[in-house]
Amino acid sequence: MSRFVTYAGAVMIALWTFVPIYWIFTISIEYRVETQRVPPHFFPENPTLYQYKRVLGFWPEIVGYEGQVSTPSGHSKGVMRGLRNSVIVAAATTVLTLIIALPVAYAMGRYKFRFKSTLLFAILTTRSYPPFAVLIPFFIAYQTLGLLGTLQGLILLHLTITVPLVIWIMTGIFAALPRFAEREARLDGCTRTQAFLRVMLPMSASGVAASALIAFLMSWGEFAFALVLTGGTEAQTLPPVLAGMFYQAFGEPGELAAAALLGIVPPLVLAAIFQRHIRHLNIAGAV
Asked: Which residues contact 49 (CB under 8 A, 6 or more apart)?
């Protein structure tokens, strides 16, 4: 009975997760006539890449009218720019997060010092407030510093989101690693920095991969700060672009669906890559 409940729960969670994605996918490969049909089709009768071509800036041929092509979507430039900016911001945020957070987490996990628990709690507390509670202070500060509408400003702000979480995650991972590996590295002549880079990081590679994935996903999907600090500028990332399309694309839901699916692809690819590494790596043993 317990196994049945477990499987049933897993099926329900899978349906809850994948059915909306599948529905968006079907809309993205349908023509508007089929999308607006009542009742809707669970499987598209005439699947097409027409919406994707328009969103990507191509001139797709109109079905039923040989030699005639449709214009690209009016949102194509914004979508492509948003994708590019999101990749830049998320990648830079991930790299900088690891550079900043890993040494801090290593010190927190491996050494004893006064007020360490208080400091860890304070770091995690920075993630307890809702983003909208600090939007106005950040907006005023960025306006004063000239960082509004810049990728650099958005990257710096995303670091305030990702760094505390990665520090918290990696502190526990570093603390769980065996002490003898680090001692033997020091006996072999490694400095503390060399022991950290050559021994501790390889042993915690799976945790680092998971932290990198989490940092990338959090930066990629962040909406509130991106909307307020880059909305309507050349530095606008994909989430605000999709929000703008939602309010303007009631007549073309396929465009919005295609753009949303394009935004899912990079995180899915990265998750697949890191999942393979996480599954095959072991952080518990040292060679």
From this structure: 29, 60
Cis peptide before 39 (omega within 30 of 0): yes
Q: Is 238 helix (H, G, I), strand (E, B) or coil?
A: helix
- Summarize pLDDT for 197-237 with one digit per residue, the tens: 888 888 888 889 889 999 999 999 999 899 999 888 899 99
| pLDDT at res. 282 | 47
CA-angle at 46, arms to 40 and 52, nearest 5°: 95
* Cβ contacts of 166 within 8 Å, gap of 6 or more: 97, 98, 101, 102, 105, 211, 214, 215
pLDDT for res 271: 82
Which residues have a Cβ under 8 Å from the Cβ of 157 and sit 6 or more positions away?
138, 225, 229
The structure's pTM equals 0.85
CA distance 100 to 80: 30
Q: Is the pLDDT of residue 10 over 70?
A: yes
Q: For residues 227-240, b (16+ Cβ closer than 10 Å) or e, as one string?
A: bbbbbeeebbbbbb
Q: How many CB atoms lie within 10 A of CB 52?
A: 20
Among 156, 44, 54, CA closest to 97 = 156
Which residue's structure tokens are 């994708």?
Answer: 83
CA 41 to CA 187: how far, in whole Å? 68
Beta carbons of 238 and 221 less than 8 angstroms apart: no
DSSP state of 235: T
Among candidates 35, 15, 37, 18, which has minimal Cα distance to 27?
A: 35
